[in-house]
Amino acid sequence: ARVIATVDFYDALTTTRPYKPTLSRERSFEIMNEETVAGRWDPVLMKIFQEMIVSGEIDKPLSEIEPVSFATA
Known about the structure:
By secondary structure, the protein is mostly helical. Helices cover 53% and strands 0% of the residues. The chain has helices at 2-14, 25-37, 43-55.
């Protein structure tokens, strides 16, 4: 559920809606990070998601994506 919510949050920010313009990836990340610092999102998941967007990993077929460990220190 947290993964889907994170992707939906990014989509809502980066997609044109009748009530708002499309935001850039950079501005979307700023908003997402502000909300994460405020405790509304999983910081580990948010970091991994943003890294996948920047690296292009998110655009690969599922069979080509390397597994990610969510273990925390």
